[in-house]
Predict the structure.
Amino acid sequence: MEERSEWIYSHIYPDARRPGVVITERLVLRDRGLCRWSRFLDTNDLKGVKAQGEVWRREAVKTVRFSTKLGDPSRDFSLFGERQAVKNRALFVWLWEVAPVLMAWLSFALNPLSLTLYMTSGLLAVIWHAFPWDGSRYVMSKAATVEPLIGATVLSALTFMVSLVASWWLRLGGQHVAKDDVYSSVRPHAAAISRWHWQRPANAIFFGLFALWCIFLCIVCPVLAVQGRSMPCEAGGCESMPGVVDGTCGVGSCSCGAWADMHCAQAASLSPYCLAADAPLCSEDSSKASGAHGVLLLTASGSAASLLLLFLSWCVNHLAIILAWKKGETDPSPALKADHVPYHKITVTFEPPHRGSLVFTVGADEDVAELTRLLLPEAPASTWSLPYGNTDLEPLWRGDEDPQEALLLNPSTQEAPEDVQWD
């Protein structure tokens, strides 16, 4: 066989810190003792180091350390400031991977159907506060509380409008969309809102009845707020003598309210409406009750039933949305996260010490023992076999699961090396 005069080791791998950049390491060893290593980055980034290199004589090598690793070879060549960039890119990848999940759960909380559920819950709570409460029990001998009924009127109108948006969001109106349609929209996919044959008709029936219920609340709550209330009348100033009301509204000290005063109405004709107190919800004498108890209880019970049905609709529709989810096709992880690969890391030190050390890598299929013999002629003969020959990725040396570096010394480094010039 022809004797070789030059050995070339080439190692090509992607740079995890620069997506799309390929790193090429090249080691050339000559039998005359000259050695050259170069590392080139295929990048247009002017801020980065495009190429590195080193030339030396074999006699100048003091020690050779080598270890087999499973990871990213580019991590062994981190430049100043690049470690923070690696952390920032790792954070970006994490956010990119987590963002779809966070946005999915956020869409659960903020979509129109969820907002309708929240507003209906608030509506029920407001209506329930219309029942008079003294801190320990309901006092039905009092009139209904006015403020909650006024708030319920406004909230029911807003809930009605949000429910219309929720109906649009669930695609209950307009043209029917096929389940295999891939058109992107802020609304759920057609396969999600029509997963079961009964789902879309049930949604349409429920939201139709729910809209009618909100309209009913907008009408009945103001009526309940004024039912059984006393009129703004001060009959005391209209009495000619105690117990006799015969004055004229707006004349002298007689005041029956702005509207009656402007019309100069007779206070005696208004006395039936000038009640001393609001009519209670319930009374032993039914003629003295306001009559609002039954309607108010119906309003509260109907709102509770609507909330329960709306919650069931929320669960069904969101379960269908979850079952229709698909993993996004844009995943930056392969471009930003390099796959862990086996490789050899070589560290060479020189004499004199101030020259420093050289670190480079070679592929895992290279004969590291033969490479060491070429760097150090006094190294033992090669007993190398192909590493990682099976799918279990067993280490090249036993006990090297936590890679330990092997160290070989060159006794000839005590001699002064000659000047190096690569021709």
Confidence is low (pLDDT under 50) at residues 388-403.
